[in-house]
User: Fold these one by one.
Assistant:
Number 1:
Amino acid sequence: MPEGDGLSYRAAGVDLEAAERAKGALKNLVSKTRDENTLSEMGLFGGLYALPGGMENPVLVSSADGVGTKLKLAFLTGTHDTVGQDLVNHCVNDIIVQGAKPLFFLDYLATGQMEEGVVTQVVRGVAQACLENGCALLGGETAEMPDFYAEGEYDLAGFITGVVEREKILDGSLVQTGDVLIALGSTGLHTNGYSLARKIVFDAMGLDVEDLLPGLGKTVAEALLAIHRSYLPAVRSILASTRLHGLAHITGGGIPGNLPRVLGPGQGARIDTGSWEIPPLFQILQSGGKVAPEEMFRVFNMGVGMIAIVPPVEADSVANDLAASGEATWILGEVTAGGGVESV
Amino acid sequence: MPEGDGLSYRAAGVDLEAAERAKGALKNLVSKTRDENTLSEMGLFGGLYALPGGMENPVLVSSADGVGTKLKLAFLTGTHDTVGQDLVNHCVNDIIVQGAKPLFFLDYLATGQMEEGVVTQVVRGVAQACLENGCALLGGETAEMPDFYAEGEYDLAGFITGVVEREKILDGSLVQTGDVLIALGSTGLHTNGYSLARKIVFDAMGLDVEDLLPGLGKTVAEALLAIHRSYLPAVRSILASTRLHGLAHITGGGIPGNLPRVLGPGQGARIDTGSWEIPPLFQILQSGGKVAPEEMFRVFNMGVGMIAIVPPVEADSVANDLAASGEATWILGEVTAGGGVESV
């Protein structure tokens, strides 16, 4: 296109064709996540998803989330294919705790100058996790925003929608005093506490991303980029069962910030801190940053990625089922009549 | 909380209580957008929305979008209550073009250091637009990401889900050669082309946000912050009518980039460029940046925010109905058998 000596969008930092090329490469990735209810290809204004038939009172469950400053680890290491998995798995976990199964996902990827290879890597991770969770990647927005992001950086957020029968919603109403808390192990920090973790590792401990974390046998990059675990495969079979009274996803705020969100009014919980060994990564962070123990539990998951709440009589069988799915599980504590989360 | 001399999340730049306080202030705003299908308050992991009853084959239509670099105008002027409206209206327009009516919306707001007043203003705009579009603000994520955004800056994205009966989806299959294109006037740039517009106004023309745009009688801020128009109020009554064959939202890519997305295979369009006067703002940008005419039409909406496609026999009556809803409308052109968008 002849542009003379005047200004153009490309000169202003936005290359529309590059955006289109990147989206073209993504189309193939995305199409693999389609299922029989996905009625649209990428490129329409909105994505189309037919509500699965046979439901009596379908309730949609939707959540938005970002990857947060874990992205800085991706930038430092040039590893861009895991953060999409973090994002999708995080979103999936956020809706299964209300009893929902995921239907579709949309991503939002914003960057200063679009690097096609990076965009493709990011969306490859998103698409792979969508596949693994049986969730259609229905659409998304890739925004090129000059002057917003540092060179080589981007932000990544996502939106998930799932569905649950109205009478199967997990809303705390089933939770009874005396119910047992079953912990499901995390794979690392998941996507929370990275601003503090980075400050500890890079500033206080003076490490580089490729340095070994003392005593862990892993590099900083390996430890901090461990993928946020999706608990859907393990939890799927018990999601609609009467054995399950509640599920809490342990994200920002840790156990004390998240467990109360799924309890009934006035209920609290007793956490047996001797029931598991805090994984070495968290111990390293705590001593490296001289972080107060309460702060550690308020910022990090401390090895607990999800908590299932079940009646005492079912505790062993549910724990066994979850363990059979490959989860590290243990009895973490119990639901109490008093408010607050108490650690003993 | 006693933190001794060790590191804390607050020292790392993340103030969890500030985030909670801001969300508390938003709760009241958000609750106004609730309708009888909204089953959850803010603060759960996922928002709950009951699918409206009485539908035969409900298809969900979902879209993600951001505000883009129009946000820079908000930063420069300290005006944070309109960008949320831009975002919601943009998303609403993106799903009505497929025949859907909005059900719910979620926002993603990311910033370096959360300023409670700014967050509240942004979400006030989001909530107000949700109210105006009859759309529940079901949830969202407010992310505090130190070292990601410049001081006083943020990014804002959103995600909408609507619903349409399967047989009422607008997918191009109704569009006939000879159908009439009816333009609906835009209120300004809407949310597209801001990287170029800022370069023209601030760099090439050397203006400040409070300067008057020569010949427009408005300041740069007033002209460039004009709110992206929602066409739902005007289009609602004809959405499911047989008179409507298609709708195109004119966003990034302009008329040539967006109109073909809603035509049938092989179809094209003839645009009568003499059918409307390009609004002065676009003329000022074109001359101020010496931008090639084709580039103007490829980047900006040029005064056309949406295009309705109707059979010739219905053109006058639809145009009258839209005009009665307060829209500036005119006959823009027609659908042709050949591919491509041709301007005459």
Note: The longest strand of chain B covers residues 154-165.
Number 2:
Amino acid sequence: MVKIEDVARAAGVSVATVSRVLNETGRVLPDTEARVREAVARLSYEPNLSARNLRKNESRIILILAPNFSNPYYSNVLAGICDVSRNLGYSTLIYNTYDSDALDESLVESLFQKNRADGMITLACNRDDRWLESYASRYPLVQCSEYVEGAQIPHISVDNRAAARDTVSHLVSLGHRRIGIVTSANRYLSSADRLRGYRDALEEAGIDPDDSLVAYASADYSFASGKQAARTLLEAADPPSAVFCVSDILALGVIAAAGKLGLQVPWDLSVAGFDDVDYTTMFHPYLTTVAVPCYELGRGSMLMLYDHIQQKPGAQSEVYLPHKIVLRESAAQKTDRTRSNTD
Amino acid sequence: MVKIEDVARAAGVSVATVSRVLNETGRVLPDTEARVREAVARLSYEPNLSARNLRKNESRIILILAPNFSNPYYSNVLAGICDVSRNLGYSTLIYNTYDSDALDESLVESLFQKNRADGMITLACNRDDRWLESYASRYPLVQCSEYVEGAQIPHISVDNRAAARDTVSHLVSLGHRRIGIVTSANRYLSSADRLRGYRDALEEAGIDPDDSLVAYASADYSFASGKQAARTLLEAADPPSAVFCVSDILALGVIAAAGKLGLQVPWDLSVAGFDDVDYTTMFHPYLTTVAVPCYELGRGSMLMLYDHIQQKPGAQSEVYLPHKIVLRESAAQKTDRTRSNTD
């Protein structure tokens, strides 16, 4: 097998110079570079493979595809990824995908090539982005939080369905039976799974599902859209006494909308969120929510990616971190004062 | 002068193939690539220059150096940068610098080279990072929000000193004379300028400065450190009746600390923030603050960078966007109930 030393000898340059040309990591005079390229071609040296191996040692760049920076969920995940990658000696470059619909194979491929990344982590995708599977078969890729349903792509997340079920079951245990949900009109697996978990809990409690209690906020979980979705639930003839939201920011929107209607949380309405972002305890009522270990998800995704880059035998490909329901002030026992009296 | 067509003819390939080799933007067979490199060398075609020019058209990557993703200030700025860059056909890659102290010339240089970025935007730096000046003389660089004091580096920001002065003058106009400040223990120009503006306003009002009214929170403006800084002010023998904070998150910490001490904002204590991030109006009391046009700063920095990349004559290098004091609930007229009775 032809070695890099053979190329260096044939081109009359040092091994370091060959490496610089193949990895494009330093300035090489044009005619020196041409000599190296020619030697590579003449000797049938496997330049792609070697360039790739050397490159792996040299680039040490991880590309992160992240949507919607204004969501504190993602900032916490990013912090976890960046802390681990820094310790492992990697630079992280974050590309704003705006929303999951902006993801497509040519974008991912071109970002990857342009930045010669050693691997990639996606923080959001639609649950049916099956094209990511062919990509993942060629490059180290880990999906964090959101992943493609049923695909063979390494991912780390929480069990969204179980967490939603547990939260809604908690609302049931507080005496609520008319329970609404504010979910998101996106195609994320988490939104679908949280809705499934909500339905699981109702079924377990023997409560008939009622589509009029399912409200959809915007795809990006905005505060304003949470308020709007809440109004459709709360102004209905037969409003819920408790609302489960698929994100904290939506829950804050629901609390604000309730306030506008003269309803006090939790006395008139119980509200539960999802994520446990920082500001859920900056103001009263402190939010009852699902604590998602965002930072740990970020850390775990980078560690998992590292194992895949290193082709470590037995590298994990499917991890679910434990969630925790955090009981605070926004959800309380249903009493006579609670608005809904229909059940 | 040798043209790319000459190289293509000499190498027996298409112009597109030469371009692919020079820009490394696509797969080219090793021997084809070697032929192109050889032709480039033989004809003394200026590969660096052309590669650079073509690369400028091809790389279209802007590198953004951003600290602390969990601060919503930066997420809004990032959104503005990304929206404009997307419209201009650029990809933005964001590198997490953690804090401004992590910035150094070799990091910036290596990120720039590795990613072949067309330009760079920094969102934070220390006010004395003069080494950035030599960097800016070689590469398109724009500083957004924070910039190096007195340096010749294109920047866009707000007039932090004037904004702080206006805010504190507003507190004076409400009858407060014992006014504290919670600032940050970082080396950002904004922190220094906001402290200067606070002192300007006191001086204008004929109020003697009192160092015991200046409290320092952590360098990263955390909620917890805002609470802690507030306690030193509020538990003092002669506490302030109003506190100006150099960021909203610190102001939220002050409000929380006041609540723990049984003080109601604004009845017992007036609080003003800085930035006007989203969650200042998610809970009561709505925060009186300085509206910084974060998104517009992001937009403006990318437009400015674009002009510098294009070497547009008359490209702007110093822009200050207008700020606005937003009067809400957290700052009110000093009354007898207000805690401080010492003036």
Note: Confidence is low (pLDDT under 50) at residues 48-58 of chain B.
Number 3:
Amino acid sequence: MGASATTTPELYAMNGGDGRFSYAKNSFLQGHSVNASKEKIGEAIAEKLDLKILLSTSKTIRIVDVGCSVGPNTFLAIQNIIESIERKYQAQYLNINQKPEFQVFFNDLTSNDFNTLFSSLPPNRQYFAAGVPGSFHGRLFPEGSIHFFYSSIALHILSKAPEELLDKNSPSWNKGRIHYINAPDEVVNAYATQYAKGIEIFLDARAKEMVSGGMTVMSFPANPTGIPYSQTFTGAMFELLESSLLDLVKEGKISEAQVDSFNLPMYVPSLEEMMELVQKNGCFDIEKMELTSPGVHASMTNTSSMGKAIVMHVRAGMERMLIQHFGSQIIDELFNRYAKKFEEFPHHVLPSKKVQLFVVLKRK
Amino acid sequence: MGASATTTPELYAMNGGDGRFSYAKNSFLQGHSVNASKEKIGEAIAEKLDLKILLSTSKTIRIVDVGCSVGPNTFLAIQNIIESIERKYQAQYLNINQKPEFQVFFNDLTSNDFNTLFSSLPPNRQYFAAGVPGSFHGRLFPEGSIHFFYSSIALHILSKAPEELLDKNSPSWNKGRIHYINAPDEVVNAYATQYAKGIEIFLDARAKEMVSGGMTVMSFPANPTGIPYSQTFTGAMFELLESSLLDLVKEGKISEAQVDSFNLPMYVPSLEEMMELVQKNGCFDIEKMELTSPGVHASMTNTSSMGKAIVMHVRAGMERMLIQHFGSQIIDELFNRYAKKFEEFPHHVLPSKKVQLFVVLKRK
């Protein structure tokens, strides 16, 4: 297994800049998700965040967006969090002249376009901004320094695809597939195990970095119990990408071996899996864990403009890793095919709108 | 006076990336300065920093490089500061198993190339890294959150050149010059006043951001008392640039008005001026303030390779603002002329090697 057979994590970052295929211009899906979560986050802060405890040891509230990409969604989400905390402050305190200061850390992989992120920071922001490069699968902050972690549509990303998928002598060899849709149990298990390891590291790091009483709010793609992954929206999105790549194999434009050695570094867990991982970690109280609608549902995606936008969204998110593995010469054709398949796909057969997990944890 | 007549502060950042004219490849002069300051910083930490006080309220030591640019100098400087603090920790404490954690904030203007900075962070660093975009002429951090400010060759940069230099009806109109060398007193005073305002804002902001007992170490170009600015190395560097631009005016390649409306946003203070500003602020004890050698002196700069390197250094630092004002078409010719003038310049007539101010302040 050569080094070139795996995708390097740094290529998992979204497209930077502000060009046609940039994340900045193609992140409205995540924007829907931010909107859908807005009220829920406000509620969680109002009901569960105790500012008297947090402010007993610090005059500053430190907030992190884990996997922030380049905006504008992260700025909207942060604004909502700060406004919610300020409302809670007013509800808990009488003296509003001594409001806390806010410091916001925008985190994403080192390859994220922080230059674009920084240059688009809201000019009238009421917080001190900082960028933190590095994987959330590891420590990012000093011990006991963070009061609020936020993460939107990032936690389904693995630090890498499971290595055994590349081993021709293993029952987990993922021949002819780029993910675990319609794959044997061994492949699904390899993904699930890799995911669990990553989340264990994530929770362990965040537990160390948070102050007692601090809050973590996350939402990310999830698999509704009892529904096969291929019949969910996320599953269908990836299956159509796989099918587009296999078409290119048939036409000799890429090799079979190239597809065999490419595996998406993503896993969509169920509520039960996540629940078990948080409980196993033991450092957090689970204040909320529920399946929600991401704000965009299957029926909407059948409209042509929404469909096109979703294709652009997938491109903004995955282009870098696809180019690294398959080369840039096939990328336009790949996404043209993908767009066509997407248009023809009967989205209405997708049974569930609740394909996102909304999680509120409180550090014990 | 049109908006186009002034240079926007965001263009004061060094050249990004890692190309021929990048700061990353042309910052050895600053590197000499970092080396020259290394021992002095170690001494200041050993003698004056009280870790028992700092660690009584925090388990983390927070360090900032103000005006860090893109490396590698900032990484060397930070490494030296952390190692010095660790030595002091061992000298002050018996229990070395509970060493503090370090969080380092790399600060520069929003237009600084943070992507290059982040991708070149030392992989084995023993600290948590963050980037903070924004001008040091203003607040950057929450109140009472920083233990150590460091700044190398940045504090001579103004937030903007004085506006009255552009006013044709003012005695401060800076016709035919780009700086205050050989200028009437009114021009020098306009610069000095602008500088004083900026340093007042800087000291006020840092005083708020620092914890009591925290340390600020800065070194930056300074003007030795009694020596005309034009006879210092920095003065000569700028005078040769002005002379190169005036040559282009004579040849009709740029207009007189373009030179009249361009003024370098830099001021080189004397020790006495800085002393007065710190005392006026009142929040700091002055632990050390002395003129030092920047590690490169006039005789060295007469060697051809050093001379070429200095020209590249000036280009890396000033190209963006020169292009914004004069256009990119003249930039190669400008620096070719500058290089030639620099080569012919009798550096040995420069009287002083001590053209840098080394300052150690302690927050009261």
Note: Residues 1-7 of chain A have pLDDT under 50 and may be disordered.
